[in-house]
Design goal:
With 181 residues, the chain is mainly beta. The protein contains one helix and ten strands, in the order ββαββββββββ. The chain is 3% helix and 33% strand. The strands form three sheets. It has a four-stranded antiparallel beta sheet, with no helix packed on it.
């Protein structure tokens, strides 16, 4: 079983998950079968009511850099729910990165992701990843308005121009932006 992101194993002639260890919403029944956590990238946005759209949790886009780092964007959220002290939990929303060394998905930026769905990603340069979607701010409440650039070398996220603030300023509907670089 693999949630949302899988890779083909020529050796096993089957699909295998990319990442392991997600314990968010891991039921007592599943703990027996998945002691390291759920495989792949579970997009359990319903665990974080009010932050992301919980109707259709999913990975919407992937990007890989020249070093082999894999980035995923979409309606997703990851919180270390098994860490009892809330301020000590690592969180990532809308945007994550696969850490090959630990075989786990982690925050792609220092601010812990974005406020809503990342719909598309395109490389601007070797370290700059253009993001668009339905997010208004980053995890530290820095204003982005649906368009941002992630500096993958530093983990910094900055607005792309003035963003794509719609006249209604409605946060619930993603901006329909398609880009090719």
């Amino acid at each position: 079983m693999a949630y949302n992101v899988a890779k083909w194993s020529h050796k096993d002639q089957d699909w295998r998950p990319v990442g392991k260890g997600c314990r968010t919403m891991l039921s007592d029944l599943d703990k027996k079968w998945y002691p390291d956590g759920l495989p792949g990238l579970p997009a359990h946005t319903d665990a974080y009511q009010g932050f992301l759209a919980a109707i259709f949790p999913r990975v919407r886009c992937l990007a890989i850099d020249k070093a082999g780092n894999l980035y995923a964007g979409g309606s997703l959220g990851m919180v270390e729910a098994d860490v009892p002290v809330v301020k000590d939990r690592r969180e990532a929303f809308g945007l994550v990165k696969y850490d090959k060394a630990t075989d786990r998905w982690v925050a792609a930026n220092k601010a812990g992701g974005v406020s809503r769905d990342v719909m598309q990603m395109s490389w601007l340069s070797g370290t700059e990843l253009l993001l668009s979607g339905g997010f208004v701010y980053d995890g530290a409440f820095g204003q982005l308005h649906n368009a941002a650039v992630l500096d993958t070398a530093s983990g910094e996220l900055r607005p792309f121009g003035g963003g794509l603030l719609r006249e209604s300023k409605e946060h619930g509907i993603s901006a329909s932006v398609f880009h090719a670089v």
